[in-house]
Amino acid sequence: MKLYDWLTVWLNIDRVMLGFGVTILFFSVATVTAFTGGCVFVYLMDGKQNILKRSLRSALDVLRTLPFLIVLYLLYYGLPQIGIRMTSWTAGMIALSVYHASYYAEILRGARVALPQGQMESAKAHGFTPFQMYYRILLPQMVLRSGPLFGNLLVGCLKDTAFLSIITIYELTAAANALQAVYFIPMPAFIIVIFLYWIISLILERLLRLMGRYSKHRGLSYE
Amino acid sequence: MNDLSPVIEVDNLCKSFDGMEVLRSINFTVERGQIISIIGSSGSGKSTLLRCINWLEQPDRGTIRIVGNRIGIKDDGTPMSERELAKMRARMAMVFQGFNLWPHLNVLRNVTEAPVHVQGVAKDEAIAQAEVWLQRVGMLIKKDAYPYTLSGGQKQRVAIARALAMNPEVILFDEPTSALDPELVGEVQDVIGELAADNFTMVIVTHEMDFARSISNEVVFIDKGVVVEQAPPEKIFGNPETERLRQFVGKYR
Predict the structure, then answer these.
(1) Minimum mean pLDDT among A65-74, A95-104, A205-214, B218-227: which range?
(2) What pLDDT does residue B3 have?
(3) All domains in chain B, ordered by first residue
(4) pLDDT for residue A179
(5) Nearest chain B residue to A222, by CA
(6) φ, ψ (nearest 5 deg) of residue B11
(7) Which residues from A are below 8 Å from B102, CB to CB?
(8) Which of A40, A76, B123, B218 has the fewest C-beta atoms under 10 angstroms from its C-beta?
């Protein structure tokens, strides 16, 4: 590892930053859609159980047991076989969102089950419709109570974006890989990437701590 | 709104849980401005009765009318959707044994949430109203506090303000003081007493006999799922007709 290698990284920093931007884009969009999807799934599974709700639950269970890479392959290489073609970006975005939505759903479902029955009853007794009750009374409490668990999910989602390089998306890991392949400087190329992933994780930790303080202020978490 | 109809009309209400009959053909009416206490030993079905009135429990048989409108079942005999039920429930309010305040909202938001989002009251108007009600239950100074910082008595007073803010036809109290420390029971009973003096229509399930006696114009004694006696408190406590009520009242002397 010579100083010259680092200079090479520096001269190609625009490529790295482009990858970094793509990673952040995929991560943040997928996090928002996955979280929203998780909330919607739990709402759909709420209430009296029937065959549809149980099927949704099983589907999410299966999804969670699959490796993310398989989901990605299935969407990008598998679906064209039955005539559904999409760009690598669409496939990547859908795979990340749906896959992680199943995890958000699992965490939120746990929080939903743990909510005292009385919360639902007082909402009903004051005339809330099922959706209003979920959106205004139950969901905020479920989210605030699940803060620490979301941390693992966020980091997991960030790491899964690296798989997107396999379906030709030029994100951070792909950028580093391209760099090391051209100039054969694996160490500096990957060290800079590690550093950039780490920065995102630090920001996430900060945000979660803010959320933790917010829920502590409402007596919803104890640490 | 039909002012001539009783606020609540319960007719032939039956309810069982897993084959156990909890309510057996209950009939009673609540007129506007009446304060009715429901007493009876634990497991007699009084809470179930109250929870059937706003359809938190679904009765097996019988009809319940709120100001003349049947709750739970539509005119054509089909069950109401949750949305239709919500509309009916918004005309009543309920105060729970366990308070059930919403912990993620501060005291003021707990009181304004339903008026704003269920009844569509403008936000500033709802806040002004909420402050009046909070003042009334002596909780205005705590309007920015979160529920977990409050004592049981304070929580229940906020829950009462939350109920009042719905401008309900009737407030249903489900053992409002049973979960309170003995020294906090008084403050909640005082608040309910003041409402009684202002002729709010109320149905109160309670174990506090002195409270039931002093506050209500009518007391309903339920035993084993049937209304055994219904009379003004002087008669219920002073001159009970049935042996069962005599025994029950005797225990609380």
Answers:
(1) A205-214
(2) 63
(3) 1-91+172-253 (3.40.50.300), 101-168 (no CATH)
(4) 87
(5) B148
(6) -130, 120
(7) 119, 122-123, 137, 141
(8) B123
Which residue in B85, B90, B146 is closest to A219 by CB distance?
B146
- Are B147 and A124 an interchain contact pair (Cβ–Cβ within 8 Å)? no
pTM of the model: 0.90
Domains and CATH numbers, chain A: 3-217 (1.10.3720.10)
Q: How far apart are CA A138 and CA A127, in angstroms?
A: 14
ipTM of the complex in this document: 0.91
Strands (E) located in A161-209: none
Quote the CA–CA distance of B11 and B194 in Å, as a whole number.
Answer: 30
The residue-averaged pLDDT of A72-84 equals: 90
Task: Collect all residues of chain B within an 8 Å Cβ-Cβ radius of residue A144.
Answer: 104
Which amino acid, residue B123? K
Which residue of A118, A130, A144 is in closest CB contact with B104? A144
Say whether B103 and A218 touch across the interface (CB within 8 A): yes
- Report in angstroms the alpha-carbon separations of B234 from A137, B237, B240: 43, 6, 9
Report, as an integer, the average pLDDT of A63-75: 93
Give the model confidence (pLDDT) of A176-223 as tens digits: 888 888 888 888 888 999 999 999 999 999 988 888 888 887 877 654
Q: What is the DSSP string of A22-74?
A: HHHHHHHHHHHHHHHHHHHHHHHH-SS--HHHHHHHHHHHHHHHS-HHHHHHI
CB atoms near residue A115 (< 10 Å): 15
- Judged against a pLDDT cut of 90, whether residue B75 lies above it is answered with no
Q: Encoding tokens for residue B27?
A: 């009939």
Residue B252 above 80 pLDDT? no
- pLDDT > 50? residue A121: yes
> What confidence category does residue B1 fall into, taking pLDDT thresholds of 50, 70 and 90?
very low
Q: Which residues of A touch B118 (CB under 8 A)?
A: 126-128, 132
Between CA B71 and CA B69 the distance in angstroms is 6
CB contact under 8 A, B102 and A116: no
Q: What's the confidence (pLDDT) of residue A11?
A: 83
Quick check: B89 and A122 CB within 8 A? no
Residues within 8 A of B (CB atoms), A 116-155 only: 116, 118-119, 121-130, 132, 136-137, 140-141, 144
B219 close to B36: Cβ distance less than 8 angstroms = yes
